[in-house]
Design a protein that fits this description.
333 residues; Glutathione S-transferase Yfyf (Class Pi), Chain A, domain 2; Rossmann fold; 13 helices; 41% helix
């Protein structure tokens, strides 16, 4: 039994519910025990660190302090979300590298009766755990329905392999871990050169022209390389490429229909799990045609909303005609 302290992060039961469901569906097959951190809090995503380091790292380090207290037969904290993984690892590293920062963070933690000593836990991404702890041979041995015939583009996004303080990944620009895992479950992995390029992050909200170009570049390259489907390890990447693909098509006058799913969903298919239990049908760009290549019928679409019913008032968007699109999508969401 491989035991891990589990930091789910805020997306897993929300926009990344398919990731959550599929991880839960495969963990038993792979003999993994996940002990969720009790009373965990948000990692602050990307914006908070850019505003004020002390409260930002205090917010993150609170999770590490709780995990260090909780550890029961393991000191490994596993995070499936790329932003969560990166923030947890950065907090641990910079608290040690910059003692003054560490002292101030621990002053803040002390207000809640907590303290964190850097290095008390090991922070790892789910993909790293599956490839290097569970092992590719073990994963391959669990495959009952190999995905032969499904052409997959492996997309990690920009956060997982960088900055890689502990040298866990094979390469900064072209890491092979996700390709290797997809090969182990029988998929036909295409050569996808943009596997660590940025999806745009929150640029969809603050600079949509830039975001749509980044999304277009990724999706068009996957299509040009013959992919039926793109697979990611990051909730933000999945949401951007899936939820904003229609907007990208409208902006550029294109017609891409590239499904974007989580790698754990394909693992579940290879292990013979029910597609509905893996979150298929939640994606906005249907995976129906990609699944048909391996003889799997996609469940009926699940009615989900990725936007809160009430949000902050936003001004209408006025796009400049910059990349060759129509340039007149004023006020469109």
């Amino acid at each position: 039994m491989n035991k891990y302290i589990y930091y789910p992060g805020c997306s897993m039961e929300g926009s990344a519910r398919a990731y959550y469901d599929s991880l839960n569906a495969i963990k038993g097959t792979l003999d993994m025990e996940l002990q969720e951190i009790d009373d965990w809090n948000c990692c602050g995503a990307t914006e908070y660190v850019g505003m004020n380091l002390i409260p930002a790292y205090s917010l993150i380090a609170r999770n590490l302090a709780l995990a260090a207290k909780q550890k029961n037969g393991t000191k490994t904290v596993m995070a499936p979300c790329s932003a969560c993984y990166l923030n947890l690892e950065k907090a641990d590293y910079y608290m040690a590298e910059r003692p003054t920062l560490g002292e101030k963070v621990n002053e803040a933690l002390a207000a809640g009766g907590l303290h964190y000593e850097p290095g008390s836990v090991d922070i790892r991404h789910l993909l790293d755990v599956l490839v290097n702890d569970v092992g590719l041979e073990t994963i391959k041995a669990k495959v009952t329905h190999p995905l032969k015939g499904m052409r997959v583009a492996a997309y990690l996004g920009c956060m997982v392999p960088r900055p890689d303080f502990e040298h866990r990944w094979s390469d900064y620009e072209q890491p092979t871990e996700l390709d290797d895992l997809l090969n182990a479950i029988g998929a036909d992995v295409v050569d996808f050169p943009l596997k660590t390029e940025c999806c745009g992050g929150h640029m969809t909200q603050i600079g949509p022209e830039t975001a749509y170009e980044l999304i277009r570049r990724l999706v068009s390259t996957a299509e040009e390389h013959g992919a039926d489907i793109m697979v990611t390890v990051c909730p933000m990447c999945q949401m951007n490429l899936d939820a904003y693909q229609t907007e990208t098509n409208r902006f550029f006058g294109t017609n891409y229909h590239m499904p974007i799913v989580f790698f754990t969903q394909l693992m579940g298919l290879a292990f013979g799990a029910d597609p509905k239990d893996l979150g298929f049908g939640m994606e906005l760009v249907s995976a129906k045609n990609a699944l048909a290549r391996i003889g799997v019928e996609e469940p009926a679409p699940v009615e989900t909303s990725r936007k809160k019913p009430v949000g902050l008032p936003m001004p209408p968007r006025r796009f400049k005609k910059k990349f060759g699109g129509n340039g007149n999508q004023e006020g469109q969401e």
